[in-house]
Amino acid sequence: MADLEIKRHFAAPPDRVFAFISQAEHLSKWWGPEGIELGEHDLDFSRPGPWGSVMHGSGGARYKVTGEVLSVEPGKSVTFTWAWHDEDDQRGAESEVTFSVAGDGNGGTDFVMLHRGLPDDDSANNHDSGWTSSFQKLEAYAREQNG
Predict the structure, then answer these.
(1) Distance CA 9, CA 4 (A)
(2) b or e along 59-91 (b: 16 or more beta carbons within 10 Å of the residue's beta carbon)?
(3) Nearest to residue 13, comparing CAs of 77, 145, 106, 108?
(4) How does DSSP classify residue 29?
(5) Nearest to residue 116, comparing CAs of 79, 86, 72, 91?
(6) Interatomic CA distance for residues 34 and 70, integer angstroms
(7) Rounded to 5 degrees, what angle do the CA atoms 60, 117, 131 make?
(8) Where do the segments described as Disordered lie (predicted)?
């Protein structure tokens, strides 16, 4: 098993960043790596319950991931399960993701993503690339919204 942690800083206040990482209308604006298009989705991390998304890549590639929102601490953190589906729509190994936000003392926000229980280092490296690209989209979206 492998874990992955990614940290980012935002100029926006924590409540705003928490909205960006938990509410459906914001998640749909940045979810998925650059160059990947978000298709069907049920992205709402503001309440416990199921979630899912299908992303489309070049050449007709389809990437489906689903899970369950396990806990929400409003304004602070959200934890959800994560599992990719294969070509036959069979759900694979499950891991767990936590998004956390905290004020930086200067009106900005420190954001931490912890993805726990990935199958191996290769999986962690692949997820690192995907999350890093997705968070670049989130940073651009946050700048645009804070603008």
Answers:
(1) 17
(2) eeeebbbbbbbeebeeeebbbbbbbbbeeeeee
(3) 108
(4) H
(5) 79
(6) 27
(7) 45
(8) 114-133
> 119 is written with which tokens?
């199958």
Q: Where are the domains of the chain?
A: 2-146
Q: How far is CA 20 from CA 25, 27, 100, 122, 137, in A?
A: 8, 6, 12, 29, 11
Structure tokens at 122: 């290769």
pTM > 0.90: yes
pLDDT above 70 coverage of the chain, percent? 99
Residue 99: strand pairing partners: 78, 113
CATH architecture of 2-146: 2-Layer Sandwich (3.30)
Contact 64, 83 (CB under 8 A): no
Per residue in 26-83, pLDDT (tens digit) is: 999 999 999 999 999 999 999 999 999 999 998 889 999 999 999 999 999 999 999 9
Question: What are the angstrom distances between the C-alpha of 78 and each of 56, 57, 73, 100, 136?
Answer: 25, 27, 6, 7, 20
